[in-house]
Write a structure and sequence with these properties.
Distance between the termini: 19 Å
Helix content: 25-40%
Largest sheet: 8 strands, mixed
Strand content: 25-35%
Strand order of the largest sheet: 6-7-5-15-16-17-14-18
Shape: globular
Number of strands: 20
Order of helices and strands: EEHEEHEHEHEEHEEEEEHEEHEEHEEEH
Structural class: alpha/beta
Length: about 400
């Protein structure tokens, strides 16, 4: 018989959100175990670009979470040093036409009222910030608060410094419940782990884990491709993207949408995104998507036409219908907490999410209002689904 393991909280998911939840819960004095059916950063985190962005978010709860997370990321970068490849290089959003620039200027005005630092950049100044940018742009905006990390490294180091016990290659097959319906722990193929709290940080599979606990959380996968070039000297100094990227992020369309996002990395390769489409968990290479990425990137940086793309990879953003993550306790199942559904912003929003989860676990006042992120918000007016009293 497998030895029964016990702790204060089980975090399901060893991606960036789970790693941050483990870190801040452990710092709050809790005994934490992290469980994942694969390796650390084996899902969406490992397929991400490492963006820590405030620039693409309009005023509201997500932007508040992004600003909180940006401050926490900067603190972690000081603690962890160069190990996570944190770069506070800032972002530059460019508008190719005067009409696009007018729309961007209006968008920025709202962001400033929410605490975002946004600096207008004229056509001539764009060339100074990014010497290899295509000429003829109408203008842009520089966002000094945007940053970047190497996501797989960052997740691994957050788990390491948390001191949480890590169980990889261990699929969760059930959420254990008491006769009164409260969380008792999780069941895995290698034995049960008992804990009075379970954190759902399962990313794209967050809906599946919620279902194991008997509740509905409508997380869907939204596929995206990234192109990776050969290593280069520093040709792209900031994260640079076209102004229409923000509209693509907010779109509800299931069809393919692409907008150029180009950024250098500390290791040399240039990363090129971003596509969005809802095709389930289909990882098949999409030539139309990859060609659109390449064309958009060349439109921003013409020198890329002469650069080799070494590989492309796909990832699945955990998408919720209102584009906000589910964060906090689930009133339908006492002891169940959610930290998933961040779509393409999970790397950047992970630190704030982790801190909010730790505060909820320990009964401390939250840094932000959790109401917009409440996991039960997708219930129908008829009320919560019957969840039964059985233990999976």
């Amino acid at each position: 018989m497998a030895k029964l393991l016990t702790c204060d909280v089980v975090v399901v998911g060893a991606g960036m959100a789970g790693a941050a939840c483990a870190l801040y819960a452990a710092r709050a004095g809790l005994d934490v175990r992290v469980v994942d059916r694969g390796p650390v950063a084996g899902g969406t985190t490992g397929a991400g670009e490492g963006n820590l962005l405030v620039s693409d978010k309009e005023p509201g709860p997500e932007l508040e979470l992004a600003l909180l997370s940006a401050r926490l990321w900067a603190e972690l970068a000081e603690d962890l040093g160069p190990s996570v490849e944190y770069e506070s290089k800032g972002g530059v959003v460019v508008a190719s036409t005067s009409r696009a620039l007018d729309a961007l200027t209006e968008f920025v005005a709202g962001q400033r009222t929410a605490g975002v630092t946004a600096e207008p950049v004229g056509p001539d100044e764009l060339g100074e910030l990014e010497p290899h940018l295509a000429p003829g742009m109408a203008g842009g905006v520089r966002y000094p608060q945007d940053a970047q990390v190497m996501p797989a490294l960052a997740a691994a180091h957050l788990v390491r410094v948390s001191g949480a016990r890590l169980h990889t290659g261990r699929a969760v097959t059930g959420v254990l419940r008491t006769p009164h319906g409260a969380v008792l722990g999780v069941r895995t193929g290698q034995g049960d782990i008992h804990a009075p709290a379970v954190v759902n940080a399962a990313g794209t599979w967050g809906g599946d884990l919620a279902a194991l606990a008997g509740v509905r959380l409508p997380v869907l996968p939204r596929r995206g491709f990234v192109l990776v070039t050969e290593p280069l000297p520093c040709m792209v100094r900031h994260k640079v993207y076209a102004a229409d990227y923000v509209a693509d992020v907010a779109s509800d369309s299931a069809a393919l949408r692409t907008s150029p996002v180009v950024e250098g990395t500390a290791a040399g390769p240039v990363l090129i995104g971003a596509t969005r489409e809802r095709v389930g968990f289909d990882r098949s290479l999409s030539l139309p998507a990859v060609r659109a990425l390449a064309a958009g990137a060349i439109g921003l940086f013409p020198f890329l036409e002469r650069v080799r793309a070494l590989r492309t990879y796909a990832g699945f953003r955990p998408y919720l219908p209102d584009h906000l993550p589910a964060i906090g306790p689930d009133p339908r199942v006492p002891g169940l907490y959610h930290a998933c559904g961040h779509e393409g912003a999970g790397i950047g929003l992970a630190t704030g999410t982790g801190q909010l989860i730790a505060q909820a676990l320990t009964g401390r006042a939250a840094d932000l209002d959790l109401a917009p992120f409440r996991p039960e918000r997708f219930e129908t007016p008829a009320g919560p689904e019957a969840i039964g009293g059985n233990t999976p």
